[in-house]
Amino acid sequence: MPSPQALFFDVFGTCVDWRSAVEALVSQMVREKGCQIDSFAFADAWRARYQPAMQEIRAGRRSYADLDVLHRENLDATLREFGLTDRFDVHDRADLNKAWEKLTPWPDTVAGLSRLKSRFIIAPCSNGSIALMTRLSKFGNLPWDCILGAGLARAYKPDPQAYLRSCAALQLDPAEVMMVAAHNDDLAAARNAGLQTCFIPRTIEYGPDQTTDLRAESDWEIVARDLEDLALHLAC
Questions:
Q1: Transmembrane stretches, by residue range (predicted)?
Q2: CA-CA distance, 201 to 57, in Å (whole number)?
Q3: Domain containing 153: what range?
Q4: Between the N and C ends of the chain, which has fewer C-beta atoms within 10 Å?
């Protein structure tokens, strides 16, 4: 395997624990409103609207909108689903939507990324907007060299343009880039676009009963335990 020049990373689930952080803010705000709900169920329901919202754009039924906009629309729908529409005003909703900017990195993330950065260009190739990724990186001390992905490409993964335009921004051929993700479908799309691939299992991303992406489902170039193990694979 030729050594890559750059490493691209999925962020939600791969680098950060979105579920616990979103649940914590939902739980806090709901308690302050005097409501009682299953806050993990709320976080899961909000996240479940993520792919369908992006699919409207991928399918050409809607023009591109940043993920911050889609998250807010999905929040409104989730509040309706849980009977909380009248309890959260516009300011509450704006505050709750910022949960996606304050996600906690997995324990190995910052140290692993720092080691990898010593040898490679590292960047998110996420469906998050440039604004969201920038604020999330500041919050979690994620040491990116630059912000790539959907906000730059104006296309949502697994659209190949999300990967290809990110490679082009660094003036690299796809074969010179490795995509790192905890999701087999993300890696399959990256491979189809010509990138190298690395699978990192995050077996509790969706909680203790997770049933998907528990293991590598193809012959990815690298399968690592976590980001620090990936650094060992790549001699960092």
A1: none
A2: 28
A3: 6-17+103-233
A4: N
Tokens standing for residue 177: 């880039």
Residues 79 and 31 in one domain: yes
Give dist(CA 6, CA 114) in Å, integer: 14
The DSSP output letter for 194 is T
Of the residues 67, 101, 135, the one at which a domain ends: 101
Residues 34 and 10 in one domain: no
Q: In total, how many domains does the chain have?
A: 2
State the DSSP string of 120-151.
SEEEEEESS-HHHHHHHHHHHT---S--EEHH
Q: Are 143 and 110 in contact (CB under 8 A)?
A: yes
The amino acid at residue 88 is F
pTM of model > 0.85 = yes
Q: Interior CA angle at 143 toward 22 and 95, to 5°?
A: 25
Residues 135 and 91 in one domain: no
Contact 150, 126 (CB under 8 A): yes
Place of tokens 């039924």: 61
Same domain (yes/no): 210, 165: yes
Of 64, 79, 101, the residue at which a domain comes to its end is: 101
Residue 1 maps to a domain:
no
Q: CB neighbours (10 Å) of residue 1?
A: 7
The one-character DSSP state at 52 is H
Q: Is residue 146 part of a domain?
A: yes
180 forms beta bridges with 9, 198
Q: Tokens for 150?
A: 């959907």
